[in-house]
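Handout, section 3.2

Students often ask what a structure token actually looks like in practice. Rather than define it abstractly, here is a full record for Fibronectin type III domain protein. The first block is the sequence as you would receive it.
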Amino acid sequence: MKRNIKSLLAMLLAVVLVLGMTPATASAARRKPTPGRVALTGISAPSYNKITVKWKQASNATHYKIYYKKTGTRKWMGVATVQGNKTSYTHTSSRKRPITPGQKYTYTVKAYNSKYKTYGRYNTKGLTTRTKPSAVRLKRAALSKDKKSISITWNRASGCNNYCIYRRTPSTKWKRIANVRVPRTSYVDRSPVKGQKNIYTVRSYYSPTKIYGNYNTRGLTVSVPKSGSSSSRKITPGTVSLSKISAPAYNKINIQWKKASNATHYKIYYKKEGTSKWTGVATVAGSTTSYTHISSKTKPITVGQRYSYTVKAYNSKYKTYGRYSSKGLTANTKPSTVKLKNALLSRNKKSVTISWNRASGCNQYLVYRKNPFSGWKRIATLKNTVTSYTDQAPVRGTTNTYTVKGYYSPTKTSGSYNTSGCSVFVPKSGADTTSKYTYEVKIINTYNEFYNTANTAPFFYIKTNNPNGDSIRLNWSPDPEGLTENVISTGYYRDLKGTQVGNMQKVQGGYVCQFYPQKTGFYTVRVREIKPQFLDNPLYADSSLYYCYETNASVTVTIKDYKKTGVEWINGLIKKYTKPGMTPKEKFEAVIYGEFVNGSRYRYPTTIKGEQGYAFMLKEQGAMWQNHQLNSSTSPGLLCDIGNIIGYPVKRVSYDLSHPDHDAVVDSSGKYYSICPPVYTGQIDKEDIEYIDFSKY
């Protein structure tokens, strides 16, 4: 009996123990492992644009998330997430997560468990540091020939906008003697300490945060004698070698030459060809190798008169002149090229009126006509106050092409002329040539240069009372041998209110369409109306006079080569921002910092606040050198083009738009460059859209 009672008590005790332990065991099973608190161990700034933070591994961590903020602010910003086996991370400055030299930043790290999606505690105080500009690498310090000045040069440093030049002697401490702004990398000390060793160094400086970089404490040493050059002999400049002469305009002549030795200035002279007396035109600095003489009251240039030019080198210190070319170089100007406006067939189809813009440097206009069966023939001579002419006897049944030359009769000089001319088909007598509606046509682009690409081509506004847009055609002359019409969908251009009719937009008072030829050249674009018998199936009717009536509406347009003009634009930037002697890298950086970074006028394409994607505006369409718009796709492509032309190849970091540096390029050393403007520079409110007002046309 006692044995049974003991067995029963043992079972009851076991049940109580099991029941008592069950809640605690279940709770332990439900608890999610939480990573431990990250212990930060160090922070450093290895470069002007990099900060490295280090930590010890925490328990239960599969990843670490790195955060930073400006010291003194409250909001942490995520920088990166790294694997759980990492114990350091280097943050490199980017557009989205910038590091400004001199600005203090605080960093912290959280441990994270990706399986249970739990975070550990983190150091709320963090670790703080700041970067500073790179140390300047000195190149050379050289004494001038006259022993009176010293030229110091150095390599470009990163992360600064100024360079501070210091000088000392063996018996004095460093003293700042000058500040120069980036991108200059040289300085001339015109007052060195005579009779001693002059030691120079350069320190980088970033003015917004008042932070200096490290510097070369040894510096560069130059010994300066007690007195300057002992020679009392006067220095005479060398003979100027003339290289080229040209007449870029009716009232301008440009002379170019090669530099002469010992020249501080150059004096330019001219005279009428065949005369003996030279007349002084101008004096320019010794760094100049060309001069453009513009006609004035005291120094006139007469159109057609031949002039000889020469140049003397001059030394202002010794007041000495070099020898010069007594023969000189000779050129003459001619009237400006006449810019044609249009050629219009009269309503009765019996006469043609050609009109043009006024040209400079002429007192007469010579009007010429040709057709497929004959060459140019002068048909009229007019005073320069007249800018139109009506040909009462055009050749019927064929195309009549007209052009105009500027002419200056006192010197019997003709200007250049438009060889393509303006063309009009003149029907034979009695042909059915009456259009039913009235038309005008205008180009409505903001920018008046057009290229053979879609976003740089002309937009045409056809003002008409014709309700049927499908019956309207545009005829290009001469034949462009390949013409593309862009479809303008409703709502594609946000500043254009209209409805789609075929490939055009029906707008207030008419229609808007866009064409562009692949072939460059000067074109006359005419509005034509499909004849009634072809309206049942207008898709098969082209713009020829077999299918169409001619109208009085026409406009001229010049189409340029986009790629060729782009290369010319880049070469112009290289000429503007670079100097002889620069390395390819220095040239590349001079162009991108000078044109696109420092005080840039470029902006991001237009976007509407609260909407996704670009908001295309018809009035903003044009080349990037016209509308000054760049995005994360066009800007790295442009940098690659600039690098290729300079001879400093760079490549895109990534074509993947999700990559944080997809807007950048990288050089062979691993340095990143980006000129993509911030997105906010293109943002506008929807109510700020300025719609095109066609009533002004």
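Discussion prompt for tutorial groups: Residues 2-30 form the longest helix (29 residues). How would you have guessed this from the sequence alone?
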